[in-house]
Amino acid sequence: MKYGFARVSTKGQATSGNSLEDQVEKLKDAGCEVVYQEAFTGTKRNRPQFNAVLSKLKNGDTLVVTKLDRFARSTVDGIQTIQELFDKGVKVHILNMGLVEDTPTGRLIFNIMSSFAEFERDMIVERTQEGKSIAKQQSDFREGRPNKFNKKQIEHALVLLNNNSYKQVEQLTGISKSTLIRAKRKQETKALK
């Protein structure tokens, strides 16, 4: 039986064909009868849905993933996992690489590709950290996502809260309840000073 596994790091991830929907579609096109999916970082070994599919696999089954980085981000983890699968008699098919064979050549190619996937991930993390470090040198640096709403819009929404519920103000302004709560707390803290 063919089992598919689709993974994104975050629920909002939808870039370059990596969204859960795209992966599931590709896995079903590849003949997967059951597809496990999750939004969970690939850097952790203990992933609930990945562990679930691993526990289902038995001799003669095939695990199918769209790309190597959906399977494992660490070379060591990838090698260990694939060896466990080979020991159980499970085949591994990575759609953008092909069938990984339990041969010296197949394992070598898998190890090399795993190293490249881990290197790519490490480079992304390094560039992100470098960019953050440069950004922190700016006087107006703020950690996290930028605010969609300016100060006046938030102040207006806080005034609306005097006569309306959070839900009503959220519907009127588009500013989320959590943002309104944070802004209100900040306003109250300022008033106490």
Automatic annotation (TrEMBL):
Belongs to the site-specific recombinase resolvase family. This is Recombinase family protein. PROSITE patterns: RECOMBINASES_3. Residues 1-139 form the Resolvase/invertase-type recombinase catalytic domain. Keywords: DNA recombination, DNA-binding. InterPro entries: Homeodomain-like_sf, Resolv_N, Resolvase-like_N_sf, SSR_resolvase. It comes from Salinibacillus xinjiangensis. One of its GO terms (molecular function) is DNA binding. SUPFAM superfamilies: Homeodomain-like, Resolvase-like.
